[in-house]
TrEMBL record:
Organism (species): Actinomadura darangshiensis
InterPro entries, A to Z: NAD(P)-bd_dom_sf, SDR_fam
Top-level taxonomy: Bacteria, Bacillati, Actinomycetota, Actinomycetes, Streptosporangiales
Keywords: Oxidoreductase
Coiled coil: none
GO molecular function, one term: oxidoreductase activity
Protein name (database record): SDR family oxidoreductase
Family indicated by similarity: Belongs to the short-chain dehydrogenases/reductases (SDR) family.
Record's keyword annotation contains Acetylation: no
Amino acid sequence: MARTIAVSGTASGIGKALAGMLRDAGDTVIGIDLRDADVCADLSVPEGRAGAVAQTLEKAGGRLDAVVACAGVSDFTVMPVKVNFFGVVGLLEGLRPALAAAEAPRAAVVGSISGTHPVDDDVVRACLEGDEPAALAAAAKVEESGAGGRLYPSSKSSLAQWMRRVCVTPEWAGAGIPLNAIAPGVVKTPMTTPLFEDEAMFKVMNEAVPMPLNGYADPEVIAEALRWLVSPSNTHMTGQVIYVDGGAEPTLRGPATF
């Protein structure tokens, strides 16, 4: 049976790959991105998120079978906090009522192996409190201090913790909506291209994300995992961070963390 699925980040990378797979299977995809999408919106700001939700609901007719948040940014500024956490949370919370109206609703987000890396506690705390001004102020201090490399991990750690906190609430589990995350390692997308092109950053990347199983992933690898998470077959998995990272997570954290 054809389904209607909203996917953010469809202009490139994982979101584009997933949208293509879903459409090939006969599903209707409402793509959300800054440009080249069915819904063009800036998820880094509250008004952009509200616009994305309103346009998506209009196109979907008020009912969605699944939502997948793939849109994200990776740099040393406050933008990861804006997009990767507040952009994702705002989109999912705004579209949740439309999911609850579906027969077999599903939701998934894209986390990251970097969520296991060192974070800024003040940024994470403010994110989990839902205090965007405080989170951005804390992130700006981190950026100014020269430790901006912690902001991407902070955004992804916050997202994973938010997902695990809300997934079992009446609004999600109680409404029959599984909510999970795929945490990729290094994926060959436009977002990671600069890392491959810079010799120093390439070395840092390989040390931070060791991938002994088959090396770097194509976006289709992550898209396949997301496709199953939001399929009707997933009836009982919720609150899980699934590492699709070539073995980076067990390499970094060891066998005692599971």
